[in-house]
């Protein structure tokens, strides 16, 4: 699954600028709705589009590889270790 490292980049930018940056501010500067940013930040595996990724990369002044991370899904491993029902 692809994970968007929004909170990590937000924390790093806040630290660099020595101020608190909110999702509302990111929304204002990027044109991405607050609801979309909240989903990206809180819902694992949230699906988004390249326009959103582009806007976030521009805002954070980063490359897509700094914003996105591949995380192997654990679901299959859990299913394989679950005893059969019955």
UniProtKB/TrEMBL annotation:
Domain of life, per lineage: Bacteria
Record Pfam families: HTH_26
Domain HTH cro/C1-type: 13-67
PANTHER family on file: DNA-BINDING PROTEIN, DNA-BINDING PROTEIN-RELATED
Name of the protein in its database record: HTH cro/C1-type domain-containing protein
Source organism of this protein record: Oceanisphaera sediminis
